[in-house]
Every structure is written in C-alpha cells, then in structure tokens.
Amino acid sequence: MGDIEATERSGTAVDDDTSTPLPTLLRKLGRTARFKALMAAFGTGLLTGGVALALYSLFGTAPVTVRTTYAQAGDFAALASILGGAVLAITVAAWLAGRAREADLWTTHHRWEVCATGAVALVLVFVVVRSWSEHLPSSYTAIRAESPYFAQLPTAVGATVLVAFGSILVLPLAFHMGTARTVGRGHAASATAAGLVVAAVLGVFAVRAGDDSVNVDHRTAAAAEIPSTPQSFATEAFRLQLPPLNNRPEATGREVLAAGTGFLVIGVDGLRAYDGATGEPRWHYLRRPQSGNRAMTYERGSAVVTGDRSIVTTLWRNGDDYHRITFDTITGDVLWTSDDTNDFNRISAVGLVAVSSTTLIMESDSALLGYDARTGAHRWTAPVDNNCRSTRSIPVVTANAVYRVLRCGGSTWRITAVDSGTGRVAGHRDSPGPSSAEPMLTLQDDTVLAHFRNSRYLQVSDPSELSTTPIHPSDKPFATTPTPTVDSTCKPRATRQILPVPSSVLVVCQNDESIGNATLDITGFR
C-alpha cells in the first residue's frame, strides 16, 4: 500500500516538472548580432564625422543670406550638430553598457533599450521631416544655381546626411545593446575608423563643393610701371573688335575705362585688361554661368578707378545682395572684397568715390568715411556739420580733397572741403538760397566748379581758396581741356567715345548691342 502511494506521488511530480517549465529572463542575441554590431560601429564613425562637419559648417564657414523660402544652411548645420551629438552620446553609452554586461535581461535592461531606441528614432524622424518640410534637396539645387558657391551650404547638407545614415545604422545597437559584446575591440575600432574615413571623404567633397573659385576664370599679369598718356598721336597702333554679347538681357553695352598700363573693358561677365601700347590682353576676371545662369553679375556703372589708375573697385550683384571686389589694375590681383574681414564690409557701397591710390571715400547721411584703397581698412571719419544734412549732390574729388554739398538749417547751402588724407575739414563756403537752388559741383582738370542759381559760379583749385574766392557771373567760358581729334569713324547707330589712356588715345565704338550681334570696336592711336 505504501509503495503504491509513493509511486503515484513520484509519477505526479515527474508529470508536473515536464508540463510547466519555468520562463527564462535571458534575452538571446540572435544570429545577426555580429553584423549589427559592425554596422553600428560603422554608423558611430559616420555620426562622429557628421557632428564634426556640422560644427565646422556652423562655426568655420561664413554665413550667407539666401531667400527665406529656401532652406537655411545655418539652421541645418545647428540641427545636425545638436541632434547628431545627442545620438552620438546615446551610441557611446550603448557600447559601454552592452560590453559591461555578462547577459541581457528582458527586465530592467530592455526598458533602457526601448528609451534609447525611441530617442534615436525620434531624432531620425525629426531630421527627415524637417528636411522634407524645408525642401532641402530642391533648395540646395536652386541655391547652387542662383548664388555664388559658399561652403556652409554643402557642409551643412553633408553633415545632415551623415547624421541621418549614422542614426539608422546605430538603431539595432540601441535596441539590443548586448550586440556590442559580439565583436572585439579591434574589429569595432576598424569599423568605426571606416565610418570616419567615409565621413572625411564626404567632408572634403563638401568643402570643395563650396569653393566658388570654380566659377571664376581669373588670369593675372606681371607687375609693370604705369606709362603716361601721350601728348600727341598720329598713327593707328592697334585695332580690337570684341565679340558681341548675344545673350539678352545681357546685351547692355560695356564700359571702357583708363586704368593700369592701358584700359579696362568691363561687361556683365567681368573685367578684361589690355595694354595701352599694343592692345594685347593682360589679365581678366570673369564669372562663368552656373547651371546656365549668371549667379553674380557686375553692376553696370559701378567701377571706380583711383586717381593714379592703380586700383579699381567694382560692385557685383546677386539678387538683393551686393558684393564689392577691388583689383590691382596692373596685375589683376584681388586686393580685397566686401566679404573679407575688414572695416569696409560693415557699410553700404552706395555713394562711393575714389581718391589717388590710398583712400576710398564713402558718403553716408551723417559723415564722410575714408578707407585704405588696398586693404579696405578704415582710416578716418568726417562727421556732417551740426544742423546740416547730406544732399543728392555727388561729391567731387581732387588730388588732395573731397568736396560735398550740405543743406544747413532751412536757408543755407554749404560747400565743404575735406582733406582726403586725414579727414580734416579744410574749408567751407556758405551761400543762402532756397531748397530749389542746390549748387552743382563739377570737376575740370583738378579744379572744382560750383554752379549756383542765376548763372553764377565759384572756381577753386585748393581747399584754402573756398572761403575767399569770389563768386563770378558766368559771362566767360570755363577753361577746359580740349578733346583730342582723331580721324576714325564708327558703324551706324554706334556710340563714339574718345578716351586718353596710358600710352595711347582710344576711339571706342560702342555699337548698338540691342540687336544682339553688334561688336565693341576699339582703335588705339599713338
């Protein structure tokens, strides 16, 4: 009887053990754990490179303003640096936590993994949605076609791409941190290094993609002395026929200016310098079209040549933005631009005049400002006199002074002379008159002529004469320099200009380019 009961108890116990096994708390790694770990290590390298590239884009490149309807490169650089840094911190923590464990449990360990996975997934979704809502791909294409290349755009886009792909690759590690134990430190380091190499290559391409010099055809020349303008001329020395500007609306004519060792021809695409004795090209600075468009064009009529013809400063337009580029007229070297780190980049370029080879004069409503012509550095400021304000008259410049017209009070016109070397007020002259009788200033042979109402004029050749020289009635003509007479004709409907330049006198025939097939003809006489 006792044996039977023992046998039943034993059988019952055996049946219970085999039918209801206890659940395990261990989480298996799976067959692809090693591959996931290697991909996560590669993604860690991408993330590290992406964050570094984003920081460079944000702090190591110059910001450029584009249309508000486009994605802003600076915003995406900041986005990639902050969110990429957050994902990178989670990834590093996942590597450390996964390698520190001896086993993975479905309890406490998995709760942390779910939180980490959710954070990485949230970052990834946010980056994708933000890129889509801001039209990042189309904005990138449009900005590259409409604006000069700048490094912040491709580096910001590259950093965003690296952060997005890196986040995708580290997701499996965040979801199961124990996969970190399936690869040795050497293999993990090698995969991370491979990711860093890919990120570095992408970064190099991004920086090179922001180099605007690929859109510029710039050739320079050797230094030389500036020859004098001939006092007499008799024979034809050279003849140039420059091709037409057939691409409307660029058929707007070109400017020919005396500068350097000869003359400059300036068109919508840039500057070309020629030797005044032979007509041979010396240097040029030309901008190539980008995707069929001219992203930055020369602002016609903006070129200002210094008094000794050694420097020319030009204004270029890109949409609503203006850029000033200053050249050495002899060599063609770029001396400085308004985008450089100098004093000149903080002011507008409107109202600029040039003096000799040392000073550029900027006129504002409240002052005249002098800048070093070769560096753009600020030299002096001459404030407007008390109770006076600027007028529409453009200042005129002599060898040693700048003359401007001010309106003082409600009944006085004031002509002020400012020393161009120091900014000191060297003289002034007041003349009563109504607001409709503004004096007009002109320059003839370094002599200033002030034209007043009722056919009166004032003629001074030095600032010290401004306060004492009497105002004359215009009963005798002004002494002017005679225009050279040259026996040369132009085509019909052409604008003819005679221009004395170093080594020769030019006859410039600006043919009617509105018809789309006219040339610019230049003949040099010596």
Automatic annotation (TrEMBL):
<feature type="region of interest" description="Disordered">
    <location>
        <begin position="463"/>
        <end position="489"/>
    </location>
</feature>
<feature type="transmembrane region" description="Helical">
    <location>
        <begin position="76"/>
        <end position="98"/>
    </location>
</feature>
<feature type="transmembrane region" description="Helical">
    <location>
        <begin position="187"/>
        <end position="207"/>
    </location>
</feature>
<feature type="transmembrane region" description="Helical">
    <location>
        <begin position="149"/>
        <end position="175"/>
    </location>
</feature>
<feature type="transmembrane region" description="Helical">
    <location>
        <begin position="37"/>
        <end position="56"/>
    </location>
</feature>
<feature type="transmembrane region" description="Helical">
    <location>
        <begin position="110"/>
        <end position="129"/>
    </location>
</feature>
<keyword id="KW-0472">Membrane</keyword>
<dbReference type="InterPro" id="IPR015943">
    <property type="entry name" value="WD40/YVTN_repeat-like_dom_sf"/>
</dbReference>
<protein>
    <submittedName>
        <fullName>PQQ-binding-like beta-propeller repeat protein</fullName>
    </submittedName>
</protein>
<keyword id="KW-1133">Transmembrane helix</keyword>
<dbReference type="Pfam" id="PF13360">
    <property type="entry name" value="PQQ_2"/>
</dbReference>
<dbReference type="InterPro" id="IPR011047">
    <property type="entry name" value="Quinoprotein_ADH-like_sf"/>
</dbReference>
<feature type="domain" description="Pyrrolo-quinoline quinone repeat">
    <location>
        <begin position="250"/>
        <end position="448"/>
    </location>
</feature>
<dbReference type="InterPro" id="IPR002372">
    <property type="entry name" value="PQQ_rpt_dom"/>
</dbReference>
<keyword id="KW-0812">Transmembrane</keyword>
